[in-house]
Amino acid sequence: xxxxxxxxxxxxxxxxxxxxxxxxxxxxxxxxxxxxxxxxxxxxxxxxxxxxxxxxxxxxxxxxxxxxxxxxxxxxxxxxxxxxxxxxxxxxxxxxxxxxxxxxxxxxxxxxxxxxxxxxxxxxxxxxxxxxxxxxxxxxxxxxxxxxxxxxxxxxxxxxxxxxxxxxxxxxxxxxxxxxxxxxxxxxxxxxxxxxxxxxxxxxxxxxxxxxxxxxxxxxxxxxxxxxxxxxxxxxxxxxxxxxxxxxxxxxxxxxxxxxxxxxxxxxxxxxxxxxxxxxxxxxxxxxxxxxxxxxxxxxxxxxxxxxxxxxxxxxxxxxxxxxxxxxxxxxxxxxxxxxxxxxxxxxxxxxxxxxxxxxxxxxxxxxxxxxxxxxxxxxxxxxxxxxxxxxxxxxxxxxxxxxxxxxxxxxxxxxxxxxxxxxxxxxxxxxxxxxxxxxxxxxxxxxxxxxxxxxxxxxxxxxxxxxxxxxxxxxxxxxxxxxxxxxxxxxxxxxxxxxxxxxxxxxxxxxxxxxxxxxxxxxxxxxxxxxxxxxxxxxxxxxxxxxxxxxxxxxxxxxxxxxxxxxxxxxxxxxxxxxxxxxxxxxxxxxxxxxxxxxxxxxxxxxxxxxxxxxxxxxxxxxxxxxxxxxxxxxxxxxxxxxxxxxxxxxxxxxxxxxxxxxxxxxxxxxxxxxxxxxxxxxxxxxxxxxxxxxxxxxxxxxxxxxxxxxxxxxx
Length: 717
Ligand code: ADP
Ligand code: MG
Fold this sequence. Notes:
Layout: H1 26-34, H2 40-44, E1 50-53, E2 68-82, E3 89-97, E4 100-106, H3 111-117, E5 123-132, E6 137-140, E7 143-147, H4 153-159, E8 167-170, H5 179-193, H6 203-208, H7 214-222, H8 230-234, H9 239-265, H10 278-284, H11 291-305, E9 311-316, H12 322-335, E10 339-343, H13 347-363, E11 368-371, H14 377-389, E12 394-397, E13 411-416, H15 424-431, E14 438-443, H16 449-455, E15 460-464, E16 475-478, H17 484-496, E17 500-504, H18 513-530, E18 536-539, H19 545-557, E19 562-565, E20 578-584, H20 591-598, E21 609-613, H21 620-631, H22 635-646, H23 654-657, H24 671-687, H25 697-707
Parallel strand pairs: 4-6, 9-14, 9-15, 10-12, 10-13, 11-12, 13-14, 16-21, 17-19, 17-20, 18-19, 20-21
Antiparallel strand pairs: 1-8, 2-3, 2-5, 3-4, 5-6, 5-7
Helix pairs in contact: 5-7, 7-9, 9-24, 11-12, 21-22
The chain binds adenosine-5'-diphosphate and magnesium ion.
């Protein structure tokens, strides 16, 4: 190791701006910024998307179909032609060497430029994907580099390591940046700077997994040795890549391990099971808890009784009965003379929870408060005062609960519903409303294991894997716009049978007035023309809170039979008598969102229906989403399909959920490495007493540098 690796700050050179590099002027800088690159370290991690084998030039008869190939040839024929079948103009050159011929075609081109570039006799290197359509093979829109006619190829291969005689990186580009320019920049960059990076993974771990040091890994991933297998590189299985991925995961998991350890060292409430309210509640409930509800409640009780604060994630598909579990947990906290806060992402859901909790708490002689952002000032002041004095046992609210000025007398338990709508920050704000209160977060969005490990690695997880008895899968169909009448008939049938229906339109935002208009005029035409005699309500995000409440109330009571709504009803709303939902422009919704929406029906014992009506034109991805909805009701499978269609970066809006973006790693394909890195990181945190030993100092500093704010490491800094 070099002397540099003894001090633990990253080499300041790596944080230098890119225009300090030779050959990067203002224009090149702009292009690199377009690629999201700011400093030298960013550029070191701007990795090739493919590789090109230029160890030798292949002969034309050695080229393999359907592969990117590189070869040298001379132009035999060059000119514009018109295809027989489609009568399209194309530019074609036929290129040959002593072993054969191949046809190169352009469909979009400037004729004069090509003519000048490729006169008969011109020698060049050609690069592209080889296709076989007929006897003679073709490459469409090849790349090329011109050569002098009398060039000595063997000399060329040895003379210019940035372009020939090796496996070359192929970089993601942007307008005006050519592959050749990129190679030149990254050749110099890696040569100068890869060696200044440092490896922080402890040696014994590195040896156990046979990992390279970071400088070596960066060198090899950009400019691999000639002995490397091209296939290994192309499949992302190289040792270099594995080493970089491990490094990335290791530091992520270190952060999570530290957070988890930190929680265990705090002192929290040790609640006792008094049964003062829990047993009376179970006597008045109209149903028995499901086995799954009882089992997760067991986990929660165990955590609440322990002297350290609970940090538990309760995961359960839509309609699995999470609210009831939350209610039982709340009663335990209240039995121990502490208060409870429940936060929900929307006012409608907060309002509904308020009603649920209030109904039961009222019967037990307890008090509930509802705190929203835009309450009348006097009302709010009174409420805040009662919360502070401890007169209110349980407060339900939106983000408003997390704001300054909301003080609890003694907060014992914080509950976050629909956790995926909140970030890590909100969880932490809630925690600071008390002295290490227990925290229970709930989500209906089932998270594939790889993601939940990284997203919620600091939480313990309980899963409700069973629905209340009598639930039937919601029958889901896709109707074209032209089949709308059939959809109406089906809704009419349900309404006639005394049940209720939802019609949902895509999200209304300020800028999307037209959607609001669509919802509004649909509501009118439902009431007047399509379902005359039925009571129709309209609900959207721009209505005043009181108006929203009034409509929801009517719907809950059954006075409104058909509710036309934007996605404000997406999460949590619970009206078991609603048995049919029609979703307009269903192609515009994400898969998790569709599943959430559909979860509003099928909540009682009656058979329920979901009708998806896509727009006239929609993408292939949208069509895959809709098919998944028809095929399954299983939230877990839907989440996995969603992850597949969207890719992990986009899933859940991961940035908001607190998941860092990875530079190298891929959560879908690198699971095995993730699991090893996680195990080692957790062991290391334990072995070094939360990174407090001397050997761990550089690791800890690097950890804080990388993840700092995002993992809330301030406390351990
Ligand atoms: P979610 O998990 O989606 O938040 P809810 O807590 O809103 O689900 O519950 C969905 C519905 O199931 C509610 O109407 C609730 O009263 C009902 N429910 C909950 N637990 C049971 C049970 N054990 N038996 C029957 N119905 C139940
Ligand atoms: Mg819910």
